[in-house]
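Contributing new records

If you add data, match the layout below exactly. Sequence lines come first and carry their own label; structure lines follow with theirs. Keep one chain per record. Anything else will be rejected by the validation script.
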Amino acid sequence: MSETPEPTGKGPAEQGGAPVEGTAGAAVTGTYKLGVSRPDLPVTDLPTPEEVFGVRRIGPKELVKYALGPSLIALGISIGSGEWLLGPQAVGQFGFEGVGWIILVSALLQTLYNIECSRYVVATGEAPVVGWGRVPPGWFLWVPISVFLVLFAFIAGGWAASAGEGLYALVHAELPPEDAEEPRLWAIALLVVVFLMAAAARRVSRTLELANWIMIGIILITLLVLCVALVPFSVWWDGITGFVTPAAPPEGITATQIGGLAGFTALASGLNWYVMGHYRDKGYGMGHRVGFIAGLRGRRVEMLPSGVTFPDDQKNRGLWKRWYRLLLTDMWAVFFAGAIIGMLLPTILMAHAVEISGQEVTQENVPTFVAGALDAEYGRWLFYIALIVGVLILFTTQLGIFEAMVRVTTDAAHATSPRLRALLEGDPRRFYYPFMLLLLVVIGVILHLALPVSLVQWSANMSNLGALIFPFMLMYLNSRLPRPARPRPWHYVILLLNFLFFGFFFLNFIADFIGDPLVTF
């Protein structure tokens, strides 16, 4: 990888190291060239975690209460379409052998990929969609393409439609009839709830964190109790061994199913970067110097259109190591552990539901299959519990994806258009909330067009498309970060594996879509 240019020296505004507006009062000592077509990064010291989170020291209590959080938003999206729909559908139809192994490999690769995406955010304070604009030939190509891919992948609204089906069943105490309109209206109502939550927030990211702490806690505890109480040990054993035993995909599974399972296990494979900007809003590293998207109830906060970075000196090397350790803790202890548990519990519950019901899982019935099976076997009270869990799971996904589409578009527009920034008077909220309302209307129309699970499979395979592009862009950007923040050589190997693994499933999906898949199982 190429060497990074040294800081380019002090500009007129930074002579003497005086504080410069927009870097949280820190003294700017020069600029740093990174990539093309975007402004050089001002150079200033990293903040300490204690400064960012307002505490005297970061102990276990402070770690949980203040420092952990961005990966919870990612986990809220993670425990959703893959965990409640695609994973259980695949296990319900084909069993754990070959399915569980794909889940584990996908979760490992995605966690490592997330760390590399977040490395850039912590080192520069730029959301990834802004950073892509530094990759040759420049922002005019990569920023619009990146926004388009995120919207194209997730605007189908399958996650919203599935949540609407679960809420319909919860309200009416019965499964929705085929092609019913009311579940789609419930899906739109839940989108409105997301808008209201964002509007009521002081800091949008913090509100999403707190909501996910509560909902994910309820989800995992309830699923664990249900699985311990109802699922035989033999099914537990099949699930655990299926996850850790290498095996080929099961016979009969389609390229679309396997690609969707790989793509939406954990988060969204090659498009995971779309939610990593929350590390900026949380204040991790240089994100503290850049600013965040405030809620309507919050005070107006300046958010810089470009990032900031730090000098390569002893003080900042030590601070970088501290921030990187916090990032690793957040990713492995919260995201990876939560994603594996969040996939294991629903899949073994589905396997048990198939066993006791003797029925077949299909695209049409998977959102409410477990609730129906538990109702028939154990009574109506478990029907309601399973539906509540299902609605919460899908709503956490709805909350994260809907907000993230708006966030990515807002970050891209705010960073690349001086004319728009002038029109907004420097307040990105004036774009964020109107665009959220527009997106709500568009998704409300689209989710009428297909079955929820088929929409989710489409989204998952479009996520795999990102794995053909963004790992190489990360290699370019991260290799040019200040020396202490650069990845080790094996990190580039991990990015290449993401390209090969998820990219293969996307190409197989496209081949299947237009004719015959590259491989059959």
